[in-house]
């Protein structure tokens, strides 16, 4: 967006009673980005992480310098072990220190977010478990993910982190 304004999606979340994430996406999720994500994430071409790694790391480092703990959205074990073999977000982050406060609940054969329409995504139950410290003691958290589609995944993660004591949770995604 060229202007700093509340987008339609944020308006929906706000009307539903949620405190906004204020997600920052580096790129628009257009046909070129879809092709990139297909090659990198779904076809597992790990070399493609390098295309956006520098920009992604620069953006995340801005938050890290402000005291944010970096928390990547996890990949479920089935996808990691049987399909991809890597977490696409960690590929972009390189050597940036991350906190693995979240893990995916294991639902064998679950329908992946990429196969759902908006209505189905919004009905998704909490997919994560919190495995971090007993109290995040008012920490600021930066969630990092690949694509912001509806925000459902990020808002689920945000809820768990806030329940654990996080002071403020925001997010950065490669695309939206």
Describe the secondary structure blueprint for this structure.
Layout: H1 8-15, E1 24-27, H2 31-42, H3 49-65, E2 68-72, H4 77-84, H5 88-93, E3 102-104, H6 118-122, E4 128-130, E5 140-147, H7 152-163, E6 168-175
Parallel strand pairs: 1-6, 2-5, 5-6
Antiparallel strand pairs: 3-4
Descriptive notes:
This protein is α/β, with parallel strands linked by helices. The protein is 39% helix and 18% strand. It has 7 helices and 6 strands. A 4-stranded parallel beta sheet has the order 1-6-5-2. Strands 3-4 form a two-stranded antiparallel sheet. The longest helix has 17 residues. It is globular and about 40 Å long. The mean pLDDT is 90.
N-to-C SSE series? HEHHEHHEHEEHE
Look at the helices and sheets and give the structural class: alpha/beta
Beta-strand segment tally: 6
**Spatial strand sequence of the major β-sheet:** 1-6-5-2
Question: Which runs of at least 5 residues are low in confidence (pLDDT < 50)?
Answer: none
Largest sheet: 4 strands, parallel
- What's the pLDDT, averaged over the residues? 90
Q: Give the C-alpha Rg.
A: 16 Å
Assembly context of the chains = single chain
Intertermini distance: 10 Å
Rough outline: globular
How much of the sequence lies in strands comes to 15-25%
- Tally of individual helices: 7
Task: Provide a short characterization of the protein structure.
This protein has 176 residues and is α/β, with parallel strands linked by helices.
């Amino acid at each position: 967006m060229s202007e700093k304004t509340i987008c339609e999606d944020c308006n929906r979340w706000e009307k539903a009673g949620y405190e906004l994430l204020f997600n920052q996406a580096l790129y628009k999720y257009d046909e070129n980005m879809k092709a990139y994500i297909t090659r990198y994430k779904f076809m597992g071409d790990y070399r493609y992480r390098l295309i956006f790694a520098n920009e992604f790391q620069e953006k995340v480092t801005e938050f890290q310098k402000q005291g944010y703990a970096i928390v990547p959205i996890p990949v479920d074990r089935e996808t990691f072990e049987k399909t991809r073999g890597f977490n696409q977000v960690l590929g972009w982050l390189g050597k940036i220190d991350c906190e693995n406060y979240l893990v995916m609940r294991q639902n064998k054969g679950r329908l992946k977010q990429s196969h759902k329409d908006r209505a189905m995504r919004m009905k998704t139950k909490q997919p994560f478990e919190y495995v971090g410290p007993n109290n995040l003691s008012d920490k600021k958290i930066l969630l990092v993910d690949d694509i912001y589609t509806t925000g459902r995944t990020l808002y689920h993660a945000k809820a768990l982190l806030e329940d654990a004591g996080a002071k403020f949770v925001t997010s950065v995604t490669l695309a939206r």
